[in-house]
């Protein structure tokens, strides 16, 4: 049953369901929070039972009173349940209303049983008492239950209607009068309950409506304050200068940006006129506002140029917008201006125009032929002046021709072959090739064409640069006939030199004087090529050849074998010391710098000397001996010379055997990995692991990397070894992850030789990640500075591709190679690791201390992480931490350990907790064994791992 007074009838009641639910909740709360009427029921019933004691049997009255007590108890228990339960949602209010209504109806029915007294008791006083008690209970129900009409009616009607009916049924005049009076009383009480219910409901609606209105008003005020705050923040922090002036050009408001542009503070500008604040520009600004003052028209995007109103008083450019500021009535009461300083934009536009002019000048003045082709069709869309002159066409004619119109169109120089080259360039592979072209008058000539993709203005094109190589082709033909000489230096080539050595052997065997072979290799020649370019490198080789040629005898033979390798046959050498004297002379002349294109280049030389011995079988063997001696010279510091000896030969043979054994050891599974923790100095938290390779040699026991990596580097086996380390480390990392531990980045060393084949290296890394399911971010690739220098910065930049894939990149042994800020800028890396060679003597050797501090500062400025290697003492740790280094690796924390020993460390996450568990006293140097020598990390011996 629903309340028969609609909620909508209240003058302030909205129709929203949430209001109706809230009113219903308040009605039910009023019912359950007034327990007095329920207590009165058994009390009044007991009183009435006393009055009727003579009229009814005692057991009926007692049963009647007992029923009252049971019903009232049940209703009190129901009320207690209501008071204990939350009623925020309002979804269960109908159920509580029904429960209370049922209880009221049962109570009313019990009172209705009193009507039988009309027939049972002859005493009229008793009937009057019954009537008055029922009337009193009904009046009480009006005040307690009229908040909810169904509950009120459920009690009042069953309690009174039976009495009315019984009086009327009795039939005598008094009873009929009593029936009519009681019926009138019931009607009055019902109307009273209805009006009281309406008053209660309307008051509830009014209160809820008032609460909702207050909430909405509060929300609106809060929103308005927030909006005003946002507007104020926008106004204050706007990058555009904003001001409000009155009609006399007096500042009413000005934001910080415009005040800063004007050279005053906001407070100083408010209330002052334009002429007082910026007198230099006032006249121009006032004149700019005339359309607003005269016609009320805004001034849009007006450009103004003048001297800056604040030091330095240089010329500035502003873009100004002016608007009339009007009152609500439409009267103009002020001027609203926005000012944007566009000086930088103007300067950029000017610089762009100058750049375009310079580009066009360079584009048209270079000696090469330059064409810009449509990416899809290959049609020429731009061409420089040199191409027009060379081919004999005007620019307009060139833009109308097809690319094949410039070709000889004789095999293999056909148009379809040219389109094939263009297709490869479209796919991202630059093409460089020779081509036979023809001019407008049919003359044929040779071009060397470089073709590649290019992007201009967000659109892709094909860019081709060509240069005439007709003379070069003629020279090549001539050089083919001169196969005995080196093209670059004019020196003899290897074939000629070997033949001369063979003839020298024959002369010695005939009894003539002996001779010696000197094998020369320039020191750090690759650095010259990488930093100054190959043209300078070629010029250096030519200069070296000229200097050597000027300092050897005419009877000696000087040759270039390729690259930076030279050979010298010293004839008539009566004693090996003669060759040593000549080597000293060469070292001295090569120690003098070369001046090439303004660059002063120091390029020393390493020399291997092989004097002829009677048991040397042939020229190639003698050259091999000189090569062995050369390697010894380079490995012992460079810029020196060494003689070949039997001991050297034995060492070479030993290295060859070791290489063969290593290859077999890899196949036989003799290699294994150990892992050294990397630690955060401040928290002792484990931040990484470095995978280090060891070789369990079947005869020589466990070998450290320094005993076999050099042989692997020289033989090229380092690539196979590196691939094994990569896969083995990834598999172990996968096992750790599956054991449920958090795995920090796992560092793996990659050799410079692996970086020389970037695509293959990427493929191996991808394959290892795919097989093990390891996320790329779990790997850190460590490379030396030597490997970094040898990495291409073009489209084949493997470092950028690996970082984009999610792998971390670190430079290992930082400072031991050929550090260059250029490479750190060109190839951004995640971390540098300062070499142990410098860390071990910090605080002792001033130079090492300065290098380490500089490296830490450099890393901090470049935003690169830094880690110190080889930390073995608390003093080292303290100094490194004071200089800003936060991560370290070394025996102070832990030696390299097997995988099974690393697992507890990973579970703890902290090296100190792990050490405590292992009873390792903190603060003591951490070494694998007493007397263990420090690790050395020479860049030349870096490979798959240490």
Low-confidence stretches: 1-14, 913-946
Globular, elongated, flat, extended or rod-shaped: what is the shape? elongated
Average pLDDT rating? 81
User: Strand pairing plus helix content: what structural class?
Assistant: alpha+beta
Helices, strands, pairings?
Blueprint: H1 17-32, H2 36-51, H3 58-84, H4 93-112, H5 117-120, H6 124-145, H7 149-170, H8 173-237, E1 241-245, E2 251-254, H9 256-262, H10 266-269, H11 274-277, H12 282-288, H13 290-295, E3 299-307, E4 315-326, E5 332-341, H14 343-365, E6 369-374, E7 380-383, H15 385-391, H16 395-400, H17 415-426, E8 431-438, E9 444-456, E10 459-468, H18 470-480, H19 494-509, E11 516-522, H20 525-532, H21 534-550, E12 557-562, E13 565-570, H22 576-591, E14 594-596, E15 599-601, E16 605-611, H23 619-635, E17 641-643, H24 646-668, E18 671-680, E19 686-697, E20 701-703, H25 709-715, H26 718-738, E21 746-749, H27 752-755, H28 758-772, E22 779-783, H29 785-789, H30 798-805, E23 808-814, H31 821-826, E24 831-834, H32 836-839, H33 846-862, E25 865-868, H34 874-882, E26 887-888, H35 899-908, H36 911-917
Parallel strand pairs: 16-17, 19-21, 21-22, 22-23, 23-24, 24-25, 25-26
Antiparallel strand pairs: 1-2, 1-5, 3-4, 4-5, 6-7, 6-10, 8-9, 9-10, 11-13, 11-16, 12-13, 14-15, 18-19, 18-26, 19-20
State the main characteristics.
single chain; 946 residues; alpha+beta; 5-stranded antiparallel beta sheet; 36 helices; 18% strand; elongated; disordered N terminus; disordered C terminus
